Amino acid sequence: MPFTAKPRKFSAGIIEIPLGVGQNAVTIGGGNVLPLYYFDNPAKNPPAVGVEITDTGVEAAGLPELAAYYEGANTPAERAKKAAAMEGADFVCLRFEGADPGGLNRSVADCVAIAKEVVEAINKPLVIAGSKNLEKDVELFSACAEVCSDKNVLFLSAREENYKTIGASCALAYGQKVGAESSVDINLAKQLNVLMTQLGVQPQSIVMNLGSAAAGYGFEYVASTMERVKLAALEQNDTMLQMPVITPVASETWSVKESIMPESDMPEWGSLEERGIEMETVTASACLASGCDAVILRHPTSVKAIAALIAALL
Amino acid sequence: MRLFDRVFTGSDEMLARAETAVSKTYEKLGDAAPVAFGSTAYYLPCIYAYLGLKVTNMGELKAAMEPIKALMTRNYRLHDVFTSGIATVLAAEVIEACKYAENPTPYEDRYHGRMTDAEVRELGVPLVTRDIPGFVVIIDEAPTDEQALALIKGYQSRGIFVFLLKGAIDQAERCGIKMGFPVRIVPVGPGIESVAHIISLVVRAAFIFGAVQPGDYDGFNKYSFERIFAFVNAFGPLEHITVGCGAGAIAMGFPVITNDTYDVDVVPKSLIIQENVDDLIDTSLEARDIKIKVSNIDIPIACSSAFEGEIIRKADMYIEADGSRMDCFELVRTKELHEIEDHKIEVIGPELDSFEAGSKINLAILVDVAGKNMQSDFEPVFERKIHNYVNCLEGVMHTGQRDLIRIRVSKTAFEAGFRVKHFGELLYAKMKNDFSQVVDKCQVTLVTDPALLPDLRKEANVAYDKRDDRLRSLTDESVDCFYTCTLCQSFSPSHVCIVTPERLGLCGAVSWLDAKATNELQPNGPCQVVTKTRVIDEHKGAYEDVNEAVRQYSQGALEQVTLYSIMEDPMTSCGCFECICGIEPFSNGVIIVNREYTGTTPVGMTFAELASMTGGGVQTPGFMGHGRHFIASKKFMKAEGGIARIVWMPKALKDMVSERLNATAKELYGIDNFCDMIADETITEDPESLVAFLSEKGHPALEMDPMM
């Protein structure tokens, strides 16, 4: 008996959200099929791949291939340019690692200057990620939203504790996009979206960051949450879960022991950099299979591999 | 003169002044002269907002007078008062625009005048997020300078942004108050017409943060009513022109509170008289529904969950308040708003200094709360939190509840300056912050006077008894809704609890009252209302509404739940259940096992083994997780015949529930001492000897219809 495909298209869909402006804009979301089920309906916008750089640039230490890629780039703006030119890159993510009050504690004014240089330097959309310090990020994002006005930047992320100020100062006052970050729980994700929209932020300005984990570090919770969010959005037409999902993969995977244990301490594990790339690639592909609309990666090899994977499945 | 006429007269006055100003400036500068406030992208913001007109030069300003006049209708309906009020503000903006057309800095340094878009954003963000709880516009002079100083400082200390107009500015200057945008006290202008700059800020906030479109008259009023928490304090004698502007403020949702009584018609929630200037702040905040968050708790010791489990030994304790030896209790009471003075902390009787180290003292903690959304059903929920709050204090221990509390304060805490009054400060702050949706006002009274306590304790017991009666009278039939609880979905994604009065959450921690309070406090949180109007079978507890709810909140994983059955679509479990009941085929009954019991049961499985097939949101007919309290409920597996099916329980569990279970059995079946018929591990763990025991006792389960 011949095989007859029964395409499963949903009448509900994921919201389309453009990042960046003009010719360089990239749109994420917009699908109406299960993750990667492009045989059911062609992808409206393929999942996007972002390249993460930090303001400090220390992430390349001990990783010869990564360091070689950014060789000669001494400022965040120069690194951002190289990141934007990476094969497979759709957007650039600038992470303010150095803004953390527990670390370098770079001042908001200095960060704003960096953000301005970076956004001017690149021809791809920009995502700005914070220091993960709730209070500092509020100040940082508000100030960056102002200097990046008209650039349609995405800020990662607003959380339950600080969504009001970030939502008001980034999305409402300057029309930027805001990431709504929750910790791997569909109800908390939905609640934050509801609260953000009650504040006045349009669903078209919200991208969800459902939280993540490196593969092998409780990723099954992540996969299950992402899957259920997608099903609620498509099958049940839950409008408060139809925002696209972005996952900052790199910051999760490059901090687990597989990606930081030097080869000298663990010779049987092989090359440190290769291990890190594998963790990043495996986690990113699992995120895509679970329903992510955009992933943020660090290593050129991972970016290339994930971009190739997406292209092959289209 | 009636209020309508005062508004209309004031409105006409402002219009006349605007017409004079326009013709004067027009003559002087000509048709093409530019008109702008500068540093704003919204033209003349009020006119742009309410009329949709982009005024950029004198010609256009002159032309704008006609549509402004058209708003000043005179049909003696409320609508005319509102449109005339808005038009008064627009006319005021015309006057201000003329000033700026003639001179870009008409106010020099003394007055702030127009606000820039940057200032709107700077103030707008905290206004939208409520970090600034609201703003007040003070017009004219308070009766005395002292009152003016107390008023402005009072607002400042509560984080309220202050705008001053006219005489209020002169008075503030006399009082030596530092003014300016950074200190959140802004002297706007010497004339009433500069009120336009404040309204300009409001409409630009609506443009920027609310995406309201130019010309959307109702849209701006709706936005300001819903999102901008502003109000006006206007001191008498009120001029007509001020009343005209006040009508505009009221149209935007900003109440006007005045101390003037002459010729003022009170309009509830909108135009309010408060003759006592000292109470102006409270009246104003209440009128605009502004709640102030308490940011610093004024206590000399740390308060954090890190100290929650701290134990104070006898040798280390300074005082002890022990309800089993002395008269001690804690009680939350609902009061009317006017009965409570917010943040009043009163200690009746001696303070800790009067006691010697190691003393046992009497202590009553009375927390009075009031609020528009407060319900007496929330009292026990809030009261139970006192335990957590007090326990978080460093060097203070709290156990028990009601009049069986035991509180110890350590010597270290006493030496650090901790006194009885600090319980008041702590509880005040926590109640106001954690329950801000329902608690508008809170006061705490602490009584240590031994002479007063016996009577107070009796009164408290009356209140506790009343609550218990209410709890007993709460049945699934007597309420009109149930609640969901999805708190555990983070680890048990497809499970939904349906919490009813007679069936609390299976974890034992969420009662129907808890769920009700959670719903009120977190409207988008885990507890959502489930109606019960579409009955399928009331006896089994089957409702179309319940099925819809479990379908929706389990994201389709679960189709239907029968509330009172363990055989037919039993309620699922997350994994936090206190107990599991499971079918025992030999005896035609069920066994119940609690989490603490580690041995085996007559069904041949331990709690852990049973848990593996009951948790995780799956329906396993014949097995169900539940809370301990549910065992004595009349709804416990009612569909299968109720508690008469219970044949075995671990002894500890049986002892815990026996009193209530016996009472229920007596009521339902007329059986005395039903628990004596129920076997436990000291009698048998084996199904055959279980049946023998049951036959000997004449257990009713043996006679009932087969469960399968």
Outline the structure in words.
The complex is a heterodimer of chains A (314) and B (708). By secondary structure, chain A is of the alpha/beta class. Chain A has a single domain, classed as TIM Barrel (Alpha-Beta Barrel). In chain A, the strands form two sheets. Chain A has an eight-stranded parallel β-sheet with strand order 8-7-6-5-4-3-10-9. Chain A has a two-stranded antiparallel ribbon with strand order 1-2. With 708 residues, chain B is an alpha/beta fold. Among the domains of chain B are: 157 residues, Bifunctional carbon monoxide dehydrogenase/acetyl-coa synthase(codh/acs), Chain M, domain 3; 73 residues, 3-Layer(aba) Sandwich (Ribonuclease HI, Chain A), CATH 3.40.970; 125 residues, Bifunctional carbon monoxide dehydrogenase/acetyl-coa synthase(codh/acs), Chain M, domain 5, CATH 3.40.1470. Chain B has 20 helices and 23 strands. In chain B, a hairpin with a 6-residue loop joins strand 12 and strand 13. In chain B, helix 1 packs antiparallel against helix 3, helix 5 packs across helix 8 and helix 6 crosses helix 7. The mean pLDDT of chain B is 93. At the A-B interface, helix 5, helix 6 and helix 7 of A face helix 5 and helix 8 of B.
Keywords:
heterodimer; A: 314 residues; alpha/beta; TIM Barrel; 8-stranded parallel beta sheet; two-stranded antiparallel sheet; 11 helices; B: 708 residues; Bifunctional carbon monoxide dehydrogenase/acetyl-coa synthase(codh/acs), Chain M, domain 3; Ribonuclease HI, Chain A; Bifunctional carbon monoxide dehydrogenase/acetyl-coa synthase(codh/acs), Chain M, domain 5; 6-stranded parallel beta sheet; 4-stranded mixed beta sheet; 20 helices; 15% strand; elongated
